[in-house]
Amino acid sequence: MAKKIFLFLSIFFSLAAMSQSVNPAKDWSISIQLWTFRVWSFHDAVAKADSCGIKGIQAFPGQTLGGGWKGGFGPDMSADDRNAVKAYMKSKGMYFVGFGVTNAANEDGWRKLFEFAKDMGIPLIVAEPQDNQWDYVDKLAGEYHIPVAIHDHPNPSHYWNPDKVIEAMKGHPNIGACADIGHWARSGLNPVECIKKLGGAHIWNVHLKDVATFNKTNADDAIPGKGVIDMPAVFQELKNQNYKGSFSIEHEANWNNNAGDVIEIVKFYGERVKAVK
Predict the structure, then answer these.
(1) What is the number of H-type helices and E-type strands within the chain?
(2) What pLDDT is attached to residue 20?
(3) pLDDT tens-digit series, residues 141-156
(4) Residues 128 and 90 sit within 8 Å (Cβ to Cβ)
């Protein structure tokens, strides 16, 4: 009887583990952080993303709206401009995967950010909150059902090391990580080890980029696969850690003529997804 119970439990937990495994082709997606197209208006940047075969958008605060709309992208947009942007996105079959990197000075400011994200259908806020904001940011994220992913700018930025991100996540179930793998490399950190430390289930967005030089905070961007980051290992570790989410291209190079680079990165992403075991 004991052997039968043990066999049953072994099969049960094996099936449970299998049910939780990630299928990159279904559970991952490619998107773009519009900072890549920052020299254009939001209107034109969305069109450029669409021309590159990308439908998922991570908007950034302050990008000039363009398209006959006033001001910049963010909480201060008028109701008319918000509706016009949503209609424009829908007409192109585009959708938001996030908004950031952003912050607010106080709880009222954060609530304004969450209200904006809810209105625009933005499912994730990418931010770098102050330490004394963690509690109410987590509370608001739960209230609005919009999680917050902490981004890592290079050293000496506040969250350059994943240890600090982990500190912010403790006791805050609605706070996770936005893994900017390029910035980790700029800070002299191994992106694969950072992913292991955070655990893929606590990573809610990846900024897909590569850099030309390791441990150099102002290192130039490189096309992923042509820089210093071991991209096959990064993708495999994210799969191993059960990451589910989007890879947001953020290519900070060749600013005025980078659509070809983005198309190459989209192709690279597709090849890496197929290669993951």
Answers:
(1) 11, 12
(2) 67
(3) 999 999 999 999 999 9
(4) no
Q: What is the pLDDT of residues 161-180, one digit of tens each?
A: 999 999 999 999 999 999 99
Contact 27, 239 (CB under 8 A): no
Tokens of 192: 């694969």
- The helix (H) or strand (E) run that includes residue 79 is helix 79-91
pLDDT of residue 2: 41
Residues in Cβ contact with 168 at an 8 Å cutoff, skipping those fewer than 6 apart: 129, 131, 134, 150, 159, 175
Contact status, residue 58 vs residue 98, Cβ threshold 8 Å: yes
| Widest distance between CA atoms in the chain | 74
CATH numeric code, 24-275: 3.20.20.150
Question: For residues 160 and 154, what is the distance between their CA atoms, to the nearest angstrom?
Answer: 5
The pLDDT value given to residue 4: 37
Name every residue whose Cβ is closer than 8 Å to that of residue 266 and which is 6 or more positions away in sequence.
Answer: 30, 52, 53, 54, 249
Q: Is the Cβ–Cβ distance between 212 and 180 less than 8 Å?
A: no
Tokens of 101: 């990197």
Domain limits of the chain?
24-275
What six digits make up the tokens of 103? 């912050």
Distance CA 232, CA 221 (A): 18
pLDDT < 50: residue spans in the chain: 1-19
